[in-house]
Specification:
Blueprint (H helix, E strand, L loop, with lengths): L1 E3 L7 E2 L7 E2 H4 E3 L5 E10 L9 H13 L5 H5 L11 E10 L8 E8 L10 E8 L5 E8 L5 E4 L4 E4 L4 E10 L12 E6 L4 H15 L3 E5 L2 E5 L5 H13 L1 E2 L6 E5 L4 E4 L4 E2 L2 E4 L3 E7 L2 E3 L10 E3 L2 E7 L4 E4 L5 H10 L4 H14 L2 E2 L1 E4 L1
Parallel strand pairs: 2-18, 17-27
Antiparallel strand pairs: 1-21, 3-16, 4-13, 5-6, 5-8, 6-7, 7-12, 8-9, 9-12, 10-11, 13-15, 14-15, 17-18, 19-26, 20-25, 21-24, 22-23
Length: about 375
Amino acid sequence: MRWVLACSLVIWSVVPGYAGVRVKDITFVDGVRPNLLYGFGLVVGLDGTGSKSLFTQQVAVDMLQKLQVSSKVVADIKSDNVFKSGNIAAVMVTAELGPFQREGSRVDVTVSVLDDSTSIQGGTLLLTPLRGVDGEVYVVAQGPVSVGGFTFSGRAASAQKNHPTVGRIAGGGIVEKEARSSLGKRSVVHFVLSQPDFRTAKEIERVINERYGPIAMAVDGGTVAVRTGASEDHKIVELLADIGSLEVWPDAPAKVVINERTGTVVAGEHVKISTVAIAHGNLAITVSEEPLVSQPPPLSRGETTVVPRSSVGVAEQSGNLHVVPKAVTVGELARALNALGVTPRDLISIFQALKEAGALHAELVIM
């Protein structure tokens, strides 16, 4: 059997320059935020893919007792008040409650297996209260679980697609208690940048003031304060809707993001390098496995055995010294590095070396 060490797929991303984006796509209004909810529940109706653990069975019995459903086992044998079933799964249920969702509206919920169940495909989530960080119940969830995957197994083989232990219920949660935002009749509204940047904040301030007069002021690199001058809610909503539709040209610091696990390299549009000379050699590694069968002589007491035999070959390719001129745009940087014929792993090593040499004028982020 032959194994050859290969490099990962490269993705070189070039961010187009001078692209106008809407204010609401890069900011959010202070006080207008979603709330995360979670709860513990049971999924029933599984086709033998549930858990047989004592924990899950006991939880099921406790639920039945709360529903005033008991059996002779539960009533007479307190030390063994469980029943054996592979059609139940203990799950954690999560949801996100928006700031303007009202009582009776529906939200999507995500169901994730907590025990050793192998799949919740075809199951139904029983009534589950979802609580916030304050311990209050805001949503109750129930319904059939939709799983974007499957798992099938036999005695000697199995097949699985995606994650059958995580599912979703579209509109499976009903809002029982509202989590109202603190927008109210505020005279000053703060727009918070998703990616703080001083120049972007000043750009938002400029665009708003050009449209409505001097009502906006960049407080810092992450916040722009806007005076609403309105005493009625509908006027504030109208102003915020109009501001959110304004287009700005955001700025961002120069970054090179590297994912060493996948060999992915992403460079922003402001990345530049100084004139440098680069020499980078590659290693070609080949591992061969050729098992050798050792056969004993006839009438001997020896046994036939398989003796592993491995051969490893390493060939280092020559790396010539290349001069990369100072790059003005990320496109020119990409063309210069592609001219060297580098692989994704080579790019990672080169960017790290450029940073150490002080020739890479960008932040290097390693994931």
